[in-house]
From TrEMBL:
Keyword vocabulary terms for this entry: FAD, Flavoprotein, NAD, Oxidoreductase
Native source species: Streptomyces changanensis
Compositionally skewed regions (Basic and acidic residues) per UniProt: 471-484
Protein name: NAD(P)/FAD-dependent oxidoreductase
Coiled-coil annotated spans: none
Length: 502
């Protein structure tokens, strides 16, 4: 039972301890899930309340985004619905705008805030868990905001898939060589996991799709990977990184190391080595940064904008505040070098969430806390169907074994048995049947056809503007790369909080 140590309840309920979890990603969901399990009696009796504030009603399993973009997995199975998994927690869909930790108050803008005269929601709390995650880290590259595509959400991943197939449709139907060349050129910026895996899976998918076009061949597609450093996939080691470069170049992918994107104005990617690529697709995966809300918390941050934390996963020098994951600089007690922090990746985030929940419960019950200690075991990366690299426990794998390990590992880590079974079923069926090559880009504007039908009738024929005189007559109508493009930062948004449209 929770002891009197939890009697610091809010004004709404003096006997209730409220735990506020900011963020519904890896750390947020797993922390709430562990709290739900460890405080079952207290949650049922009302002695404790766990409130999860998340901008989306689901947690995205990001390692599966490249496979979702390639059509190997349904986007529905890349996300985990928070309300189903956290059935004993209160879920609030919204974003925390600011925190006053001294007063234990959070200002939350919900989906209903625009409709309510009262404005944002004020939530009080007793214990705070900060896990807002990260957002794409962009640079002031001219044209990037207008034409760049991210790869961090499921909406962006599916939007990018639709966009790539749409470009092939444009290339197949145009009579202009310049338009065709730009449509079939795909530039990816960033040689980390997100960039390499997304490029590998989409190139694999597009090469397969090309067989169904009468005038587009796989060799017509131009893929360019731009990386500012002298290596890619540093997580798998230098040797495996060099192998990955050789593997990609053998697939006719142009890998540019030690190169930066200087501009993408007017749909022309200009690189620091002087190369110019007319392109309708620039995918930006060059790193992430902590969520902006951290700057509005008043809590201590390091030079990179991450929360300064202790090895117990408490915020340094602050009582009743906890953090983990991408937003937290957690000391790595297993590192040989002094002052090293844990890498902001899923491997640490999931394990930190468990320790954080245990320590929070221990704090409520007046017990001592434990330190977070986990030695990094290695990394695996997919380079497309049946292709991959891995460096795990000092062992180096490549090709099919690494790809199989990649799938096996992530299948074991994706939350809930329901999701594991569905993903495994999809992989099994994908091995028996052909790939789906359909683009459903119209899902991004689901009301367009109805609005056209319900709008005013067209003008009489003698007043109608001909297609040749229209200022947009030769516009391809593609807006997939103008959303942040189909920001592969994860998966192009088809609608607010709707990852199911694929």
């Amino acid at each position: 039972m929770v002891t009197a140590a939890i009697s610091r309840g809010s004004a709404e309920s003096p006997t209730r301890a409220r735990v506020l979890v900011v963020g519904g990603g890896y750390v947020g969901m797993y922390t709430a899930l562990h709290l739900q399990r460890q405080l079952g009696d207290e949650l049922r009796s009302g002695a404790v309340e766990v409130v999860v504030v998340s901008p989306d009603p689901y947690m995205t399993y990001q390692p599966f985004l490249p496979e979702a973009a390639a059509g190997n997995i349904s986007p529905r199975h890349v996300v985990v619905p928070l309300r189903r998994v956290l059935d004993r927690c209160r879920i609030v869909i919204g974003e925390v705008e600011s925190l006053d930790h001294a007063k234990r108050t959070a200002t939350v803008r919900t989906l209903a805030s625009e409709e309510e005269a009262a404005g944002p929601l004020e939530l009080t709390y007793d214990e705070l868990v900060l896990a807002p995650g990260s957002v794409s880290r962009t640079l002031p590259v001219p044209g990037l905001a207008d034409h760049g595509i991210g790869f961090k959400t499921v909406e962006e991943a599916i939007g990018l898939r639709n966009h790539v197939i749409e470009q092939m449709d444009i290339a197949s139907s145009t009579r202009d060589p310049a338009i065709r060349d730009a449509a079939l050129t795909f530039v990816f910026v960033g040689g980390g996991y997100a960039g390499v895996e997304a490029l590998g899976e989409l190139e694999d998918m597009a090469r397969y799709t090309a067989r169904y076009y009468h005038n587009v061949k796989a060799e017509d597609l131009k893929w360019v990977l731009v990386e500012a450093s002298d290596r890619i996939l540093p997580e798998v080691g230098e040797e495996m990184g060099r192998y990955t470069v050789r593997e990609l170049r053998a697939r006719n992918i142009d890998v540019r190391l030690g190169t930066r994107l200087e501009s993408c104005v007017d749909r022309v990617a200009v690189l620091s080595d002087g190369s110019r690529f007319p392109t309708r697709t620039v995918v930006w995966t060059a790193g992430v940064k902590p969520a902006p809300v951290l700057a509005a918390t008043g809590l201590p941050l390091n030079e990179r904008g991450r929360l300064r934390c202790t090895a117990h996963l408490t915020v340094e020098g602050v009582e009743h505040a906890w953090a983990a994951g991408d937003a937290a600089a957690v000391p790595d007690v297993t590192a040989k070098a002094a002052g090293a922090d844990c890498a902001p990746n899923a491997q640490h985030a999931v394990r930190q969430a468990k320790v954080l929940a245990e320590n929070l419960v221990a704090s409520l019950q007046g017990r001592p806390l434990q330190e977070y200690a986990h030695r990094y075991v290695g990394s695996v990366a997919s380079l497309g169907l049946h292709k991959g690299v891995a460096h795990v426990y000092g062992r180096k794998l490549k090709g099919y074994p690494a790809w199989f390990m990649h799938r096996a590992y992530h299948l074991s880590r994706v939350p809930t048995f329901n999701r594991k079974a569905r993903v495994l079923a999809e992989w099994t069926l994908a091995g028996l049947f052909k790939r789906e090559i359909v683009s459903l880009g119209s899902l991004e504007h689901p009301r367009a056809e109805f609005a056209l039908a319900a709008g005013p009738p067209p003008p009489p024929a003698d007043m109608a503007v001909t297609s040749d005189s229209s200022p947009d007559a030769h516009d391809t109508g593609d807006d997939g790369d103008g959303r942040g493009g189909g920001d592969l930062g994860g998966p192009g948004r088809t609608g607010p909080n709707d990852p199911t449209n694929d």
